[in-house]
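New to this. Please check this protein:
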Amino acid sequence: MTETWNTNKPLVTNVVSEDIADINENLTYLMARNGYLVDNTESDQGAAGSGGSVKDYVDAIGTTKKATLFFPHLAIDGNTTVYTFSTDETIPSNINIVIQNGALLTDDASNATLTINGNVEAGIYQIFDWGTGSGALVVGGGGSERPAAWFGFLTSASAAVNAAKIMQAHDSFAGSLGGSILLHRGSFSVASDVIQVKNKNIEFRGVGTGYAYEAGEGGTSLTFGAGTYGFDLAVTQNAGYYCTIRNMRIIGSAAVSYGIATYGPQIIEDVEVTGFNLAGIIVLQMGNQVHIRRVSSSYNVGTGLIIDDSGGNTTTLSIADSNFRRNAVGVQIYNGINISFRNCVIESNYGLGLEIYATDTKAIAYVLFEDVWFESNDDTAPRTGYQVKIWAATADSLTLVPGAIDFVRCSIVSTVSKKHIHLASIRYANFKDCRITGGDTTNGILLTNYASYVNFIDGNVITPSGGTYGNRGGYFNKKTAGSSGYLTNMDVHASGGRTQTLWFTNVIPLVAGNTETLLPMHALSADVPGYPVYGTGSIVGIIVSKRTAPTTGSLVFTPYYRVHWAGSAFDYATTATLAVNTTHVEAVATIEADTFADMDTTANEKMIGIRVVVSDPYTEVTDSKLVVGLVIEY
C-alpha cells in the first residue's frame, strides 16, 4: 500500500483499468493523510483481502502509528452497509474507528471475536449486530461510556432482544475496569432475569432524572416482563461490586417479583421503581455501603424496599431523600446493622409503613430514622392497624431486636382511622424530638410483650382523649378489659419540661402471697440497667403492663416505699394503687411531680421502683413477663 502521490495523468491512449488504478492509488494516499476507508466488499474483515479489509489496514498501520479507520454507510445501496468478521481480529489502541449511521459490524457462524482497543466514534444508533456466532465482542477502548443503542437496544426491539443487547453492552467491557452504559431516552420493553451484572464498576445510566413523587414521565423507561428480577446485581455475589443504576424509570407488573436486587457496595440514584410483585428494591446479603438516594419506590404490588440479609452482613446501608409510597408495605427490615434513613417519606402504603422484624438468626441494631415523614399508612388485619411495627418471630426473646432503633425529628401523622406505633419486641428504642399527631387518639402507641427500654424524649404528643395537651403530667389512654398490653398516645409530657420514659421488666419471679416484691430501676442484672437520673428531675407517671392477664388472682402495685409519691394524684380508679387482675392487664397513672431530692440520701435508697403485692392464690401463664415504665421529667 503506497502513500505517495501518483503524478500520471490519464491519456486517451491509456487503458481504463490503469487509470482507475492510478486514481485508487491517489485515494489511498489521501486516506493515509486523513484516515483509511474500510471496504465493505471484503468477504472477511478479519482476514487479509484485497487491501481494504480491517486486517489489511491493521497490519499495514502497525501498533504505534496513530490512525483512523472509517466504516462508511453507502446509502445509495440500501439502509445498511455490512462489514462481516468471520475471523478473530484485534484493532489496537493506536487506531480509532469512526462508524457512520447505517454501517453495521457483524459476525457470522464462524464464531469470530472482535476486540476494539481504540476509541469508537458513533452516534446514538446501532453499529454492532453481533451474536450470530458464539464469538465475543470486546470494546476495551472508546472511553468509559457507550450507548446500549450501539448494540441494538431500541424502542422498536422486542423485550428479549433489548435485554440481550444491554447484556452485550455489559459484556463488551474488557476486564474489571468498567464504564457507563447509556440507555437513551424512550420507553423500552425488557425481558426479566437477563440483566445479571457480573462485572465490577458498571454504571447503567438513563436520560434525565427518574426520581418522582407520583408517577414519573419522560426520560428513560424500562418495562420488564414476567420473571423474578429486572436488574439483578446480586446474581454472582461480589462480582457486581461498585455498580450503579441511575436516571431511569424501572417498571414491572404483578408477574415480576423484584425491580432491583443488590449485593455488596452499590448505588441506586435518581430512579423510580414501580409495579413489582414482591418488592421494588431488595437488598440482599453483603449490603455493606449500599447507597439509595433520590429514589421513588412506589405503587408496587409488594413492598417498596426490603432489607433482607440472610447472611447477617448488611452494614452501613444508607437511604436518603427518597420516598416509599402506595405499596403494600413501605419498608421492611429483616436484618442489618448501622442502617440510616434520612429525609425520606413513607406514606399512604396500604399496609405497614415500616416493619422491623427479626428471627433468632438475624441481628438488627443501630437503625436510624432522621427527618422521616410517616403518614396515613394503614396496617390492616392480621397485624393491628399501626403505621410502624417492631416485632420478632419469638415474642419472648429479648435479644431479637436488640436496638438501638432511633427516630429523630420524625413526623408520624395519621388520619382519624389510623394508628401510630406498635412496639412488640424491642430493646432500646428512642423517639427524640418526634411529632406524633392525628389518627386514632385512643390507640396511639402500643407497647406489648417485650418492649423494653423505650424512651420518648422532647417530642410533641398527639392530643390524647380525656386530657389537654400540655397539662403537667399529661394523660395516658386507658384500655378496656381483656386487652393485651399497654396503650398510650405517647409519654407523659409536662409543659416546658423534657421527659423520658424508662422501661424495665421483672427478673424476680412473682410468687403467690409475696408482699414485698421490688422492681427497682437500678443495675440489678444485665437485663435491668441503671439510669443516671438521680438527683435531678421529677417522677410524673407510671405504666404497668402484663403480656397476658393472670390466670388466678391479681397484682397490686404501689410506688417503692423509699420514694415519696403523692397518692392522691393517681388518675386510675379511686385508689392510690394500680392493679392488674384477670380482666385488666394494664394500669396507668399520672402523678404530681415529686423530685428525686425527696429521696433519702443513702445509696441504697436512691432507687426508683415499685412495690408489688402478689395475691394468694396467684397463677399466670408461663413466662408472662411484667413490663413497667416510669416517666421522668427533667
